[in-house]
Amino acid sequence: MAFLEVENMSLEFGGVKACQNVNFSLEPGILYGLIGPNGAGKSTIFNVLTGIYAPTRGDVRLGGESLVGKKPFEIAQKGIGRTFQNIRLFKELTVLENVMTSFYSSSHTTLADMVFQTKKFSSEEDEIRVKSLELLDVMGIKDLSDVPAGGLPYGKQRKLEIARALGLNPKLLLLDEPAAGLNPAETRELTNLIRDIQKARNITVLLIEHDMGLVMNICEKIYVLVQGQLVCEGVADVIQNDKRVIEAYLGVD
Amino acid sequence: MKKINSTLLLILMFLGGALIINFVMSGFSVSPGSLLWMKPGRFDGLISPYYYSILIILGINIILSVSLALLNGFTGLFTMGHAGFMAIGAYTSASVVTFLLPNAPFVIQLFCGSLAAGAFSALVGFFIGTSCLRLNGDYLGMVTLGFGEIIRIVLLNIDAVGGARGMTDIPVYMNLGSVFLLTIITILVIKRIRDGRLGRAMLAIKENEMAANMMGINPLSIKVRAFVISSFIAGVAGSFFAHSEGYLSTQTFTFTKSFEVIAMNVVGGLGSLSGAIVGAGILTVLPEGLRKLQDLTGIDIRMIIYALTMVLIMILRPQGLMGNKEWKWLSSK
Amino acid sequence: MLGSFVGLYFIRYGIPNAEPSFLTAIMVIIVAMAGSALIGVIIEKFAYRPLRKSPRINILITAIGVSLLLEYGGQLVFGASPQFFPDILPRKNIDLGGNIILDSNQITIFVISFVLMQLLQFMVFKTQFGRAMRAISHSLETANLIGINVNKVIFITFIIGSSLAGAAGVLYGVAYPKIDPLLGVLPGLKAFIAAVLGGIGNITGAVIGALILGLSETYVAGYISSTYRDALAFVILILVLLLRPAGLLGSKKIEKV
Which of B147, B257, B310, C220 to pair with C92, CA 20 to 30 A apart? Predict the structure, then answer.
């Protein structure tokens, strides 16, 4: 039984077939890539995996348990973290507070604890704070912890999104175009960072990207999505030479 | 034990402050009638009864304003039915004290009345919340407006609490000291909620509900919780109101009242706890300051002041007077 | 409210000796419409235009503030006590037999409302101007980019909306001869509820919503209890928003993640 299984998944909005019969499974601890032309439905698959859309047909299973019909926060609590294509940070909260929010579901203090500021409350708060700072450190933005998230430069905002998702202690991390809008140097740095995180935590990562350099560099296996259908899967070399992939990106002669 | 002690210590400090206020207000007398728990303070010439009642109203308005701020400024839920919960609290407490405990000592009356008020409001808040909080922005405002009015009309039709004529002869036991104490406690409680993980979750939902959802936060659960807490506090404020006025009329709790509280939040600054307090302060004091003008024209210009201030703030400084900022002692750090 | 008071003052000071007649009525309505339009435009310029790019909540709060300002300001200007709105139309009772007696005023109100609604419908759906209005409601920025003079269109829209409200005010005075500055509060809310019931953005829906609301209110007042009558409007509002937020004829919008 694979770690994440997507079986015959289709998603239709009225007449629009966003996903058609998508089948794939992810093994634990591997870094996967998901590529395809714009509008192919990559983010849509993320949305289905995280519970924003329920598939019209088919199943999605995490560790054997079906995720279909579950709400996004339930799925997040089960260990799937994600970042967004268009950044969705909590702009008015500080960088540190942004990361601390993802620790919400794993905390146990009650309302009474908060109001009376009991020892249980303050020790848990400290613990969350320490862990959040660690994550910020890993992403290299610890020095900005008290800055409102909205004031960060674009590249650091992307890093913060990843740090925040890591706060969930996820088993599966979905990164939606993490390098979008970054210059080559930032992209290189991010590439290494993602690989290091993945190895250090031994988590499964599924990465959507348009930057082929990044993808071919770190992804151990790549899926190609064209118009809602998976047309190819394999390692970098195989993908690069596949006729269908070339057609999808460059068109037919 | 150290942490619990610090909170209790704070409460004791404020209690002391309350006792001192009552002591001073009653003309420096230490008769049993002048302290916190006993009879309402008698103000022998220190300040006029007029100013005394303004201060009590100020306290109540602050409590209302910060309870709405919890909902509106922190969680991003725009509601227009806050007066409804105040009404429930007021009538509940008035009924409980007048019908069930008319001869009990004031401590009991205060405690039971407020608790019943808060609890019943919170209960109603729970039901309204679970049914409505799935709605977004403007629609939520409209629905809560509807509920607020329905609550008022229902209360209007209950003859046991006076119906259209209003309810009279309610025991008056609120004095400045107790109002002061309870206002401070309320502010402290809300500050601590905001500083903890519940507050973070609320702010996250306000900022970006979808992202909060993705981070494992159950939006509906948090929203309902905020709604219930806010309704509880509003209910308690209502009970204070009932027992400082001595009579109740449903006319007090119309949509206009809800709007007054919204105005306090907006004028002070929507995201800010200090702002809610400032807004309440300004909108309580300003109409009174202009009372001379009111006597002159013979018209209730209070609403005009509220509305005008609101519109001006919206046009000239939409983030409110405090914007997002907090005073030193109220900020999270 | 403004419409009815403008109408009232016009009757009282402008044409104090006029006989109730069709002509009188038309004059009063037109003057009331003009007065309301004027105020509407002033409000738009000073209170709404600066907020055009603000979040919806701010606009909502301002609108509520303005409406309260008008109502209580009206108390200041017109006096808080109710005043008598004189007859502007000759009154007749029409007996339809079987205990149904119609008042000629009721028929007039119905007819005038119908005519005005038809005009509005025509304007919004069959004219260039209406198209521009609808374009703006979809996206202000895009409308700007394709050359629509947004300020002018909004200006005229407010003239139309305010003058219709003014006309309604006069009709209100005809139906309920006692008018006071706060008369607009409840009808204003109910108008909104009717629009929500019918589907916001849909004129036919608004009319249907209003009819349903008005009829059910009357039935409740008649058969159940008149004190709960106003509560009905709010109950309907809540039910609609909870069960079918798009309204009877409205359409749903989808948000992209």
Answer: C220
CB-closest option in A72, A109, A167 to B196: A109
Q: Domain check: are C141 and C16 in the same one?
A: yes
Give the pLDDT confidence score for residue C97 in this predicted structure: 67
Put simply, the answer to whether A90 touches B216 (Cβ < 8 Å) is no
SS3 category, A19? strand
Say whether pLDDT at A247 is over 80. no
Q: Which of the 8 DSSP states describes residue B40?
A: P
Domain end residue (candidates: C179, C196, C218): C179
How high is the pLDDT of residue B86?
A: 95
Is C91 in the same domain as C210? no
Q: Considering only alpha carbons, which residue of chain A is nearest residue C256?
A: A44
Q: How far is B22 from chain A (nearest CA, A)?
A: 27
Checking if the pLDDT of B56 tops 70, the result is: yes
Q: Do residue C65 and residue B154 have CB atoms under 8 angstroms apart?
A: no
Give the residue extent of every domain in chain A. Answer: 1-79+170-253, 90-168
Of all residues in chain A, the one with the smallest CA distance to C254 is A13
Among B314-328, C94-108, C112-126, C170-184, where is mean pLDDT lowest?
Answer: C94-108
Which of B153, B213, B254 should we substitute to test contact with C (largest number of C Cβ atoms within 10 Å)? B153
What domain count does chain C have?
2
Give me the pLDDT at residue B298, please: 57
Looking at the structure, do residues C237 and C157 belong to the same domain, yes or no?
Answer: no
**Binning pLDDT at 50, 70 and 90, where does residue C18 land?**
low
pLDDT of the residue at C161: 84
Homologous superfamily in CATH for domain A1-79+170-253: P-loop containing nucleotide triphosphate hydrolases (3.40.50.300)
Domain termination residue (choose one: C179, C210, C235): C179
Contact C227 B303 (CB under 8 A): no
Residues of B in contact with A175 (CB under 8 A): none
Of A81, A91, A104, the CB nearest to B197: A104
Q: Which of C47, C196, C234 sits opposite B315 (nearest CB)?
A: C47
Minimal CA separation from B172 to chain A, in Å: 30
Closest residue on chain A to C257 (Cα)? A47
CA distance B287 to chain C (A): 14
Number of Cβ atoms within 10 Å of the Cβ of C216: 15
Q: Which domain holds residue C222?
A: 182-250
**pTM strictly above 0.90:** no
Supply the pLDDT for residue B47. 64
Encode pLDDT of A152-195 as tens digits: 998 899 999 999 999 999 999 999 998 888 888 888 888 889 99
Same domain, yes or no, for C155 and C191? Answer: no
**B157 SS3 class:** coil
